[in-house]
């Protein structure tokens, strides 16, 4: 017993002591979840997220400790034609009187008229912490709604950072709530179709949800080492549901196959642990390695995503090796109850004449070209995938701006009217300067000259009547100038204005002042600097993931060729996904179909994150399929028959797992924001390509073509204690007839 693999020993103990194993798992999940909530979440600060020159500008501004209260606005415009200035002024006076009595309002400013007379803007300064202003803005919105009712001939709207923040929080909250509500029934429905039995379908969902709950608690604890961001929890849910369901599927399908051969419940669990359990461990380790690559990005967002993903994968693997065997042993044949009559007939495990699992007739038909003409099949399929990947060479990276937020809310519609009437309230560059206090007057003069030169350039917004906006800290060491551009943050002219500031205007005015430090930030700078950061870090992360994954695959399969082909196929899959993303989102043809407005680029953080997620999740399928092929080879099958056996015997579980992932990821494509749409489409498309073309066409063609060379390795790698598969078939003459 002691020499048996650890996966088998764990499974046997859990199967022999199911109630203990289940109780320990419940306690583990509860302790993690409750402990995490008790410890509290440590969220990343702006200093943690500072990247490039834009990050330096943000740190300089933060060091000034400005009294920077939250400011919202009442925007008054006409419902058609020219604005009646008298009526607008009366409405502004009424608004000022009403809002001064509203709780949370510190001050009401003087109304400002747009240069073209099309709008009147009344600024409102809010009291309290600016970070929580969006949570406290509702009384202001209610007062503005009452004001609108009192002045129906005008359009009176609340618009500004707090109002937009509340509207966006409401929209995203509804989006994610809908995604969570949809993902569970979609996953359960797909699993019911895959298993044809309700209990068998419920077990993977329970394991995935408990893994997510435990990982949420652990990630909260880990946030005190690596600060968390607001994207950590959604990603834990996304990855946790994907791998938790996958690993359970691998395990349960193998256990059912062995019971269909007549084995006892305990023997079936042991064999599943020895085969699928081993594949789960290798797959989980590959996913963890891929996610660990994000830590090399030197970015708190990626680091928090890496920690959360690693924790949920580790918990899911642990659950698959411990509580899952206990549940299967305790349920026995009850796992196949209650049966869905028609679905059960279609999905019940069946074996061929030699004991091998029989796949649907579709898969032998799909495999036939790859086995009969591997060279032609390989050239055509790889050529098509490379053609799909080609658009990725023209990928552009940008952060979504205000113009990329959904326009379904009144706050965003009002924002468009605000920026049209007051261009300087739209996209701003922030020139942050730190210098000795005695240089403050010289810095102010230089910034004033800089503003004058900028406003004379068509790349920048016209000068405001009240002069340049220069803010100086109490100790006179930090000065900040806002330089507006009339273009949206994703417009190429905004990028050119940033380049002109950084390369010409700012150095020309500020260079030579003793002890000076300066940087140009703002939303355009954030986007440009982050895109540069991702491009610089992507080769490092990719290299780390590729090298370590290669070593894991060599160690697992004792084959250099299998490891190299694994890397090549996953790179091909990821490249095709990149190309598809560019085709869909950098153009405009899919806007109506998917409900978005093209930003002409891919979200800056997506390529790096997408690569590690796809590389990790793709290894799930690859390890499982190649493990089944190796079973056939070790049983003495000819290479071609072993490839046929491996693909067809794993086809059901790989297809089911892929459909679950595609279904869940596709839900994210229905969310309102462009980054979630791109993430959902990218993941869903890549998994679909990987589970069909890569695993069903390219992989069998390549392994058939290579023959015995698949298993070549240097002599020092060849010796390994043999883990005998669970009575694999001696041959598979009925799977795919090959002449």
TrEMBL record:
The keyword Hydrolase does not apply. It is a multi-pass membrane protein. Signal peptide: none annotated. The chain crosses the membrane at residues 22-41, 182-215, 235-252, 279-298, 304-329, 371-393, 540-560, 567-585, 605-624, 645-669, 681-706. It holds the Pfam family MMPL. Keywords: Cell membrane, Membrane, Transmembrane, Transmembrane helix. This is RND transporter. It comes from Micromonospora arborensis.
């Amino acid at each position: 017993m002691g020499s048996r693999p650890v996966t088998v020993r764990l499974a046997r103990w859990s199967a022999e002591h199911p109630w203990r194993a289940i109780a320990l798992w419940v306690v583990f999940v509860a302790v993690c979840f409750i402990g995490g909530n008790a410890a509290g979440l440590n969220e990343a600060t702006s200093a943690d997220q500072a990247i490039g020159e834009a990050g330096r500008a943000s740190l300089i501004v933060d060091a000034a400790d400005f009294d920077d209260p939250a400011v919202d606005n009442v925007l008054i415009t006409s419902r058609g034609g020219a604005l009646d200035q008298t009526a607008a002024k009366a409405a502004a006076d009424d608004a000022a009187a009403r809002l001064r009595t509203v709780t949370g309002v510190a001050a009401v400013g003087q109304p400002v008229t747009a240069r073209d007379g099309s709008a009147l803007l009344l600024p409102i300064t809010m009291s309290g912490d600016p970070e929580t202003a969006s949570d406290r803005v509702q009384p202001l919105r209610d007062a503005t709604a009452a004001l609108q009712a009192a002045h129906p001939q005008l359009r009176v709207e609340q618009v500004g950072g707090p109002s937009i923040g509340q509207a966006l929080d409401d929209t995203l909250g509804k989006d994610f709530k809908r995604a969570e509500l949809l993902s569970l029934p979609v996953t359960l429905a797909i699993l019911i179709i895959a298993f044809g039995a309700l209990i068998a379908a419920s077990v993977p969902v329970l394991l995935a949800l408990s893994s997510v709950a435990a990982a949420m608690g652990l990630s909260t604890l880990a946030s005190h080492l690596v600060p968390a961001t607001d994207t950590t929890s959604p990603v834990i849910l996304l990855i946790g549901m994907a791998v938790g369901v996958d690993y359970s599927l691998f395990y349960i399908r193998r256990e059912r196959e062995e019971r269909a051969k007549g084995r006892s419940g305990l023997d079936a669990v042991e064999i599943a642990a020895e085969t699928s359990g081993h594949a789960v461990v290798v797959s989980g380790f590959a996913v963890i390695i891929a996610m660990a690559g994000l830590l090399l990005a030197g970015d708190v967002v990626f680091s928090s995503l890496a920690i959360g993903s690693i924790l949920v994968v580790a918990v899911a693997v642990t659950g698959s090796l411990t509580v899952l065997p206990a549940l299967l042993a305790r349920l026995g044949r009850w796992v196949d109850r209650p049966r869905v009559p028609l679905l059960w007939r279609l999905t019940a495990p069946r074996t061929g004449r030699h004991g091998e699992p029989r796949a649907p007739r579709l898969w032998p038909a799909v495999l036939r070209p790859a086995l009969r003409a591997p060279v032609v099949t390989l050239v055509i399929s790889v050529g098509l995938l490379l053609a799909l990947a080609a658009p990725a060479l023209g990928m552009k990276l940008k952060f979504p701006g205000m113009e990329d937020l959904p326009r379904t809310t009144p706050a965003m519609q009002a924002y468009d009217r605000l920026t049209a009437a007051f261009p300087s309230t739209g996209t701003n560059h922030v020139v942050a300067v730190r210098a000795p206090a005695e240089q403050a007057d010289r810095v102010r003069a230089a910034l004033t000259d800089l503003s004058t030169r900028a406003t004379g350039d068509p790349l920048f917004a016209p000068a405001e009547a009240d002069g340049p906006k220069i803010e100086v800290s109490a100790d006179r060491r930090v000065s900040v100038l806002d330089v507006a551009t009339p273009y949206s943050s994703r417009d190429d002219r905004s990028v050119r204005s940033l380049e002109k500031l950084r390369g010409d205007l700012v150095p020309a005015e500020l260079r030579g002042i003793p002890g000076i430090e300066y940087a140009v930030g703002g939303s355009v700078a954030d986007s440009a600097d982050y895109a540069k950061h991702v491009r610089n870090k992507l080769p490092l992360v990719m290299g780390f993931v590729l090298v370590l994954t290669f070593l894991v695959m060599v160690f697992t399969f004792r084959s250099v060729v299998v490891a190299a082909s694994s890397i090549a196929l996953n790179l091909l899959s990821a490249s095709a996904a990149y190309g598809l993303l560019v085709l869909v989102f950098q153009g405009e043809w899919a806007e109506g179909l998917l409900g978005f407005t093209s930003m002409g680029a891919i979200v800056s953080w997506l390529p790096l994150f997408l690569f590690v997620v796809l590389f990790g999740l793709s290894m799930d399928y690859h390890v499982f399929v190649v493990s089944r092929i190796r079973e056939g080879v070790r049983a003495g099958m000819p290479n071609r028959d072993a490839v046929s056996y491996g693909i067809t015997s794993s086809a059901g579980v790989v297809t089911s797992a892929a459909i679950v992932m595609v279904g869940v990821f596709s839900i994210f494509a229905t969310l309102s924001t462009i980054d979630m749409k791109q993430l959902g489409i990218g993941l869903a498309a890549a998994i679909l390509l990987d589970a069909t073309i890569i695993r069903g066409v390219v992989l069998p063609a390549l392994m058939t073509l290579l023959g015995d060379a698949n298993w070549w390795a240097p002599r020092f790698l060849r010796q390994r204690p043999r883990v005998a598969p669970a009575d694999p078939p001696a041959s598979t003459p009925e799977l795919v007839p090959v002449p």
